[in-house]
Amino acid sequence: MPRYATALAADPATTYRQIDLTARTQSADPHMLVTLLYDELIAALGAAAWATERRNFKVKGERVTRATAILFALEAGLDFDKGGAAAQSFATLYRASRQQVVDASIGNDPAPFRRVAGDIADIAQAWKAMRPQ
Question: What is the pLDDT of residues 47-62, one digit of tens each?
Answer without folding.
Answer: 999 999 999 999 999 9
